[in-house]
Every structure is written in structure tokens, then in C-alpha cells.
Amino acid sequence: MDIKTTLDNIKAIKEIADSTQNIELKTLIVDLKEEILNLRQENLDLKQQLSEKIKHKMVFENKVYWDLKEDGTKDGPFCPVCWDKEHLQIRIGDEYNAYPSGVYRHCYNCKNNIRIR
Ligand SMILES: [Zn+2]
């Protein structure tokens, strides 16, 4: 059953509930509709994330991600936090030395400083 059919069914059920004047039933149906809309949004978000994941062959190397192209070349590096959390391919800044704590790269999207070594 697709989402439109489900929403149509909910609408039909709500019309029946409206005619019964049962407040509890009406409230439950409104909650149910809201839940379906939330699930639809979540589903869309997951589909988007999945297609990003399939589109890019990301390899984790030296604490950052690289996009492995079909010709064998690598594009990048990309922020590991942005990719792991949201599958966003965000280019990460150049290495900088924060002596004595280590060498870092900064992400201008999530604002994290990624320790490279
Ligand atoms: Zn980031």
C-alpha cells in the first residue's frame, strides 16, 4: 500500500470517526496521521542518504574520507563527521599543525577539528 492510499484511508476513517462524535477516537486518528507523515519524512531522508551512499564509494584513510572514482583516482579528502552522521560530502580544510597536540584539519560545515595524527 502506498503512502497516498494510507492517507486516503486515514481520511476516510476520520470522516467515520467524526460522525460518531467520539473525541478519543478522533484524537487517535489525528495522532496516527501525524505519525504517518513523520515516517514518510524519515523514509525520504533515508532514501536520500542511501542514494548518496551508493553514488559515492567512500574509503576511510588517514582519518578522513576519499571518494574512489571509477578510473581509480581519489577525490577528497572529506570530513569524516559529516559523512558518518549525514552522508554529506564536505571537503575538509588543509592540514595545520597545532603543536604539541597534533596535526588537524578543520571542517567548515560541522566546525570539528579532525585530528589527523
Ligand atoms: Zn564536518
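^ zinc ion complex. The longest helix spans residues 23-55. The pocket of zinc ion is lined by residues 79, 81-82, 90, 107, 109-110, 112 (CB under 6 Å).
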